[in-house]
Write a structure and sequence with these properties.
This protein has a 4-stranded antiparallel sheet, with no helix packed on it. A 4-stranded antiparallel sheet has the order 4-5-6-7. It is built from 12 helices and 10 strands. It is α+β, with helices and mostly antiparallel strands. 34% of the residues lie in helices and 21% in strands.
């Protein structure tokens, strides 16, 4: 490959420790259903990324969670840096470099705007065995420098340069027109503040096709006086928009333990027949039911029975994600056929 790395300096470090030991604790979850790989996240205002201990981790399909931009896989993440200022070809100047201590890799992550967020692909930029990488920088001389070491292994400093025919002229960054990014940022302006324009601005976007826009709109709603939008949430006719609104209502009202609100949220939810919903809507429907039951406690036996009957009619489902939620919820509801269906 046209990139070369040269070792510049070595020293032993008997007291040094890689950041790997902070992150490798997820490795005992490997091959479990709740395992989550090392990943790249676009961390947004009000975003929830599901970090919980053990089986409590939020999977990416939860409506109250946001997905990763890129799942890397098993690893021990340490340093990160962008390639800005490197005398590399254009795509490597724009790349995000992420270091994996345990597998001895530096990945070049290539980001692409998609909707209100990004998608990404990864490329193995440098790898070695062993190569316990700890951090990297782009130096003013246009080269990348990265260090290795930790856990009583040999330390070192490397310099990475490019030799080839592609241009290494500095990339001129021009602001691209990204309408959904701009929309998301405008909604984020209502996060953490009360604004009389917020409900009207956010409401039309609760049913948006972009998941990140929906999350930004819901978070904006949660920071406004609930009296301004609670009845709208209960009366909304669009399923996707109502589920976001009911999630917001559950999150802001659950501390009150008000049985009337509890009943109203469940009644609004149960007006929808899960069989008539899309897969994404069904995932939202069941997850919101879980959150309502967890935060408010059990409603009347009649509502519990109705909930169980509705869910049992679509169980088992065709996808792993739906079956995950349905198995949990029907087991909690003590639906009589759950055990046999789940085992099958």
């Amino acid at each position: 490959p046209p990139f070369s790395s040269r070792r510049r300096h070595t020293r032993s470090g008997p007291q040094s420790r890689g950041l790997g030991d902070v992150y490798k604790r997820q490795e005992y979850d490997f091959n479990t259903p709740w395992y989550r790989p090392t990943r790249i996240n676009h961390v947004l205002s009000g975003g929830e990324y599901g970090w919980r201990n053990g089986a409590g981790k939020y999977p990416e399909f939860y409506i109250d969670n946001l997905p990763a931009t890129l799942n890397i896989g098993p690893g021990s993440p340490t340093g990160t840096t962008f390639g800005y200022g490197a005398r590399f070809p254009a795509q490597y100047q724009n790349a995000l470099y992420v270091l994996d201590w345990s597998w001895g890799k530096i990945y070049a992550v290539h980001l692409k705007p998609e909707g209100a967020s990004y998608t990404a692909t990864k490329e193995e930029f440098i790898t070695g065995g062993p190569l316990p990488v700890t951090d990297a920088i782009i130096h003013p001389d246009g080269a990348m420098y990265f260090a290795i070491g930790g856990r009583r292994v040999q330390s070192g400093l490397y310099r990475v340069t490019y030799t080839g025919k592609e241009s290494t002229a500095p990339v001129k960054h021009q602001s691209a027109k990204l309408p959904l990014h701009d929309l998301r940022r405008s909604l984020e302006g209502f996060h953490g503040v009360q604004n009389p324009k917020a409900v009207a601005a956010a409401w039309p976007h609760l049913g948006h096709s972009d998941r990140f826009i929906r999350a930004a709109a819901r978070t904006a709603l949660e920071h406004q006086p609930v009296s301004e939008w609670n009845m709208k949430a209960l009366g909304e006719t669009d399923a996707t928009a109502q589920f976001e609104a009911l999630l917001a209502l559950t999150r802001v009202e659950s501390s009150k333990k008000d049985s009337s609100i509890h009943h109203a949220i469940l009644s609004a939810l149960l007006k929808h027949n899960p069989e008539d919903l899309t897969r994404e809507q069904r995932l939202a429907y069941v997850r919101i039911l879980q959150i309502v039951l967890d935060r408010f406690g059990d409603p009347s036996p009649q509502i519990l029975d109705t909930s169980a009957t509705r869910l049992d009619a679509i169980y088992p489902a065709k996808t792993f994600e739906e079956n995950w939620l349905l198995t949990e919820t029907l087991a909690y509801l003590q639906s009589p056929d759950t055990a046999s269906k789940a085992m099958a």
